[in-house]
Amino acid sequence: MILRNNAASYLTSVDYDKAIPIHIISPDTIEQWIETLDPLQSKWVRNNHFKADKNEILTLSNVDGDISAVAMGIGANDENFLSVSTDPWLLAPLIKKIPQGTYRLVGEENMKLPAIGWALAQYQFDRYMNKKSDQRLLLALQDEQQKAEAETIINAIILVRDLINTPTCDMGPSHLSDVTKELAACYGATFTETVGDDLLIKGYNSIHAVGKAASNQPRLLDMTWGRLDAPKITLVGKGVCFDTGGLDIKSSSGMRIMKKDMGGAAHTLGLAKIIMEKELDVRLRLLIPAVENNIAGNAFRPGDIIRTYKGTTVEVDNTDAEGRLVLCDALALASEENPELILDFATLTGAARVAMGPTIVPFFTDGDDIAANLDHASRTENDPLWRMPLYTPYMPQLKSNSADLSNMGSGPFGGAIIAALFLKHFIKEPKKWVHFDVYAWNMNDQPGRPQGGEAMALRAVYAYLHDRFSKKP
User: How far apart are the C-alpha atoms of 368 and 357, rounded to whole Å?
Assistant: First the structure.
């Protein structure tokens, strides 16, 4: 169920010329477009007072009454609008306003991003619904390569959304393990896992401490793929499948959507799927510490001190700052191989949302070249990222009187930076590491972005990886 490939249901390369044309119209081009229409259609446009305002939609019919074209307005002087080909959500408003059929976008050669938005606007998480919609609107593309690239991204984003939207009763640590095994099997990757008390034997004490109170045992998932001598990149995803907050329990409203706290793991699985499907020339490793932060008699407590995999001792100031605890063991393990690049994704802090809002993904790195290239990819893909500082003068806020570090800062400010600095301590070469603090959730419905789980920064990060690692020696 989880590894469904739905992109083929939304895109086609068959009968392009027979597809219903979609015309993107601005107030500046409307008169020129009307002149290309036959007299009856021209009259129809004027009688309906079509002005090409933003997201204004008008369908045109032929003499038989069948839909013959669609006009969509983009408005005038929208400072956020870049171009038709670079707006992934351009076509998304059409989906609920036009009938089932096969369509094509007129006058555009680069269709990858509009095609992605077209498909994602039809996404539904209907696993638990008895009544499922079978309506599909197809978008015809002439370029097979663009179609293939779009389909790869679409299927990865659908995977991320499905994983996050699935409730914890069906997406606990063992279920996340099953998905990773299935993904590994699909692409010929190697999978291992360390489960329960075996975590203690290997020194993954932080992962064990956070997850030991749950009946679904904590585990570290480890997948590898690619030729042995290729450049090594390691993805680390926070897999907290549910977060009660632990003994520092969250409010009921704060806990309501905490099934999404494995959103970082979902992102790394989606990104790994793209990397393997597109056969980037890398030695890929994926590490997911998968736990539930539950409450029971053996739950870890405020004031407990944990000896991490690196050997650093950490005093637990707050059990609701558990994400950095499970990540620190995985990041220290990742650093042992000294890979070319370590990328971690985590729904780590509310402070990141205060700073950036729910959509812009802050990232942290000491690698200036990596940051510059990620910024470029973000702009090219129209996938918002923003670099934040690893401001070392804040590091003393992680001081503990009883251990090497505390898992929380001593003050109320700069929480996203403090958390990133905590993670940085466990990285051997911070210039080769990037931390993404993702929200992984759409708060409200928008065209192409329904309320619920969401993949954020995935397109930009893959574009960066493709530019850097796509060429074989």
Answer: 24
